[in-house]
């Protein structure tokens, strides 16, 4: 029977090299990060040094907080209409965080409160669609890329078919079929048509990753399909998908607003920026503030997500370092 | 005419001390690739065997089929486009080609492991080496994360990676080429397999590190009494480590011999050509010999002996008849154990 090497045979060489290495390591500790760095570690390091990342990160944290606890940001109720405040109350820009900060809309509701309470719907739609699309599209793309052959043919043809459906028109048709359009209905409709991009991106990066030698090596050392797929291929194929998903998140939020504006997205008792923009369209010439604030919040949110996506892409792309 | 299957079996029987059956036996293996331009016959009837504790060096230039044979043994050949129309790969007497996928997967890593040429690309860049080494134990033996990590450190110590404990959570790109190859070796060695296939383990390394890595491999092999198939095109590497050599050309074994006899008296013009191409100090100033021409196109291998267009000794028979691998004998007819040559003129080559 084979016996492991005894310690004595190893000790001299090992000991000598240990001191060497620690000696070599010490000076580097002061200057650079001494910890091992992975791709994600490097990306994080890169992100931390980008002002745009911090701008978008702060914005996003704020938006998430507003979406989660709108009551913390305003005392006014978004559905309380007092017709004495009808339009005539212009924004009082010095009244920070007060009900009349952004003025009142046509039904005398506080625009500030509506902007705050509308955040949740937009963020929910954006995050919900992105999550659904990433999981569903990513999974199908991964299967197509890894297994190839007829599985790839079938999935890719389905992707092609869905890719041919116009995103906005398609979701209008779908949403039109629902009488009651809650947030989850809008999420489902957008995700139903939006997963193809992610599937394509995932498929191509999985094809690249699966050809790597370490995948063959893992197979040669007895790893099963699941382990190869989720431990070796997926982590190496994930970066492009994350970038596309973050950027797309902003696009889904604006898609929701577009649909709501057209009257096919979220519908009234739900509060959403798109609905408010739609309501404001008749009053825009005399009272532009009614549209300005929800539209501004929408742009800001989309900007925050797209900037984050850009920053993540730059951080993950070693060529830009 | 005796074919080499017999001599291989003889060699096995002579190798007393072991239980007779070889660890791994490749029998009449054919591998072809279906491409748009036709069928590329990468391996055309290869036979070889390895016993426990023995090192077989498979020698050949690029495209000779040495790596494809190894991939077929490991079951990591891409099929399609690859196909194995005939042949057997017997591991301890069982044909791996007819095994179920799951059964075969259990052999990989546990019984037969492989060391790859380029350790940087064969290690996953997003996982630490400790994780990847530990994965062997977690997958095959179901160890916990913590135990697997301890085992990984132990393995890294065993392949002489300095400061294993501190470096266990480093990533592959943080190691030097030689260290990475040690990690590959450690990974292959993890479950103490019976057989290791090393596919050009030192090609990507510089010469001094090559020697260290080969020494380590040889030492571990002796210790665990493993079989080793060493695939290489470097005659220098082979001489120190191998017990026997199989020289491949165009998907066939053209010569087999115990290592030192091959260097002393090659029995195939191709082997002779290879040996003459080694730069030597005593021939300083003279022109270095080179085998003329290019390796054959596998889509249309030359008729007869595949080596005939490049062979200085080629005659008409070489262009028509494929030479079988025959037993090589002394001039008086006594058989040279383990020696075979697939040349119509082996007698002239070895004795002439």
TrEMBL record, chain B:
UniProt organism field: Streptomyces antioxidans
InterPro entries in alphabetical order: AAA+_ATPase (IPR003593), ABC_Ni/Peptide_Import (IPR050388), ABC_transporter-like_ATP-bd (IPR003439), ABC_transporter-like_CS (IPR017871), Oligopep_ABC_C (IPR013563), P-loop_NTPase (IPR027417)
Record bears the keyword Cell membrane: yes
GO annotations of cellular component type: plasma membrane
Protein name per the record: ABC transporter ATP-binding protein
UniProt-recorded Gene Ontology molecular function terms: ATP binding; ATP hydrolysis activity
Subcellular compartments: Cell membrane
Membrane topology listed for this record: Peripheral membrane protein
Pfam families noted in UniProt: ABC_tran, oligo_HPY
Origin superkingdom: Bacteria
Keywords: ATP-binding, Cell inner membrane, Cell membrane, Membrane, Nucleotide-binding, Translocase, Transport
Similarity comment: family membership: Belongs to the ABC transporter superfamily.
